[in-house]
Design a protein that fits this description.
Blueprint lengths: L10 H9 L6 E5 L12 E2 L9 E2 L3 E4 L1 H4 L8 E8 L14 E5 L11 E4 L3 E5 L2 E4 L9 E2 L10 E3 L7 H9 L4 E5 L3 E7 L3 E2 L10 E2 L2 H12 L2 E8 L3 H14 L2 E5 L4 H12 L4 E6 L3 E2 L5 E5 L2 E6 L3 H19 L13 E6 L3 E2 L5 E11 L2 E8 L7 H5 L2 E5 L5 E2 L4 E6 L1
Helix pairs in contact: 1-7, 4-7, 5-6
The chain binds adenosine monophosphate (AMP) and magnesium ion.
């Protein structure tokens, strides 16, 4: 097969191929280690939270009916039955005409369904409390089960655990949850010209940048990066390192070898793996066209561009969501999880139709206006465009560009 005449597929088609790979297995995790991990199973609330109705304010627990319609000019007068403490479960039922002093967080006695803030009351002495504000059921109270009701589905399998979710799990006493394992991601840099960053420089060599940036982006996505160093452009060397990386990881990334002559090397190395197949040979995004997807058995292998900027964009656009997919996240490829800001495009920006363009942009804040998005152009072999960029503007494949002044979404990086 002549790999020079590779078939380029759309970003959507590429994504569909990625989504066909199965996620990693699950394990039990303590909730302190679960931050950023993805749930392996649905989580159902074991109890009502709060377990009893509680006060949100310092004040008086009342039956709202007794204070309904009360105001500055026509206060209600209630008899103070008790002074409750925060850690006390009242053992009485509030009768009509009665109230109970209650601190923030205190449990409401039976018969009470609202709290009147202390600011709207006056202690008249001899156990009489003047209420100067109308009250409705539920006012200033957290009702039993309002955060979570017993047996309610609180998180679905495939949900990535955020800090606020850890808070709910803690409040429910759920100390251990099933999560997907972090995918191990092997990283191989290829190229005769590459050298380790600490080696003495020699003419004709360049330092290996991609091993380092890929490592950061793998970690950021939730994977565990495993570096295999630099491999020369020789098939047998590439094959042996790739075989080791495939055996030891859930995903293997190769960078470099994307020039037409060299592409065959990556493809041939992938094809030499057991039960291997090339699934995609080019993707219609810019930068990042020379991206290869293959597999060995169930294990995905990706050949990424060598250009330092292109590979960073491909990591953000395709590989990071893929890592989140591998670790079980249901909506890994949806754009809704991306940090996005709206901005006004500073100049006309053309885009070649037929490919999705990832334009690096720099944002300038303005008072009372959307930030201004300035496209940054530059060669993909230079690190500069990504260094200067605050975010990426994506121009869809079917669009020939955007006019200046347009409101655009910027994906913050
Ligand atoms: P290639 O895809 O191997 O043809 O590489 C394209 C360009 O990216 C060449 O200029 C390479 O020297 C450069 N390149 C490839 N791999 C790396 C790397 N790991 N670090 C820095 N530059 C690289
Ligand atoms: Mg190369």
């Amino acid at each position: 097969m002549n790999h020079e005449f590779f078939k380029i597929i759309s970003r959507d088609e590429f994504q569909t191929l990625l989504m066909n790979f199965r996620s990693t297995g699950t394990k039990a995790s303590t909730i302190s280690d679960a931050f950023g991990m993805v749930l392996g199973e649905d989580i159902v609330s074991p109890e009502d939270l709060p377990p009893v109705s509680r006060s949100c304010m310092d004040g008086y627990a009342v039956n709202a009916r007794d204070a309904f319609g009360a105001g500055e000019s026509n206060p209600a007068y209630l008899e103070c039955r008790a002074e409750l403490r925060v850690n006390e479960k009242p053992d009485f039922t509030l009768n009509p005409g009665e109230c109970a002093a209650i601190p923030t967080g205190g449990s409401l006695p039976d018969g009470a369904d609202a709290v009147v803030m202390v600011e709207h009351t006056q202690d008249l002495g001899a156990g009489t409390i003047e209420i100067r504000k109308s009250s409705a059921p539920g006012d200033h109270t957290m009702l039993r089960g309002e955060d979570a009701a017993k047996d309610e589905l609180i998180f679905k399998a495939g949900h990535r655990i955020r800090f606020q979710d850890v808070g709910l799990l803690a409040a429910l006493g759920i100390g251990s949850i099933p999560v997907h394992k972090r995918p191990k991601v092997g990283i191989i840099s290829t190229g005769d010209e590459l050298m380790e960053i600490t080696a003495p420089p020699k003419p004709g060599t360049i330092r290996d940048v991609n091993s380092h940036t890929l490592r950061c982006l793998v970690s950021q996505a939730g994977g565990i990066p495993v570096n295999y160093g630099i491999v020369r452009d020789e098939l047998d060397k590439l094959e042996s390192t790739l075989a080791r990386a495939v055996a030891e990881n859930d995903l293997v990334l190769l960078s470099g070898g994307s020039s037409v002559g060299m592409r065959d090397l990556t493809v041939r190395a992938i094809e030499s793996m057991p039960e291997s197949e090339i699934l995609a040979h080019g993707v219609a995004i810019s930068p990042g066209k020379p991206t290869i997807l293959g597999r060995s058995g169930e294990k995905p292998i990706m050949g990424l561009p060598g250009q330092v900027t292109s590979v960073q964009v491909v990591m953000l656009a395709l590989v990071a969501p893929f890592i989140r997919h591998l670790m079980g996240q249901t909506d890994a490829f949806s754009t809704s999880g991306r940090p996005v800001v709206m901005a006004e495009l500073a100049r006309n920006t053309v885009s070649k139709p037929g490919r999705e363009d990832y334009i690096r942009v720099r944002l300038t804040e303005r008072s009372n206006e959307l930030p201004l998005a300035q496209p940054i152009y530059g060669k993909s072999g230079l690190l500069k465009t990504m260094i200067q960029a605050d975010g990426l503007m994506i121009i869809p494949a079917d669009t020939e560009g955007y006019y200046s002044g347009r409101s655009v979404q910027i994906w913050m990086i």
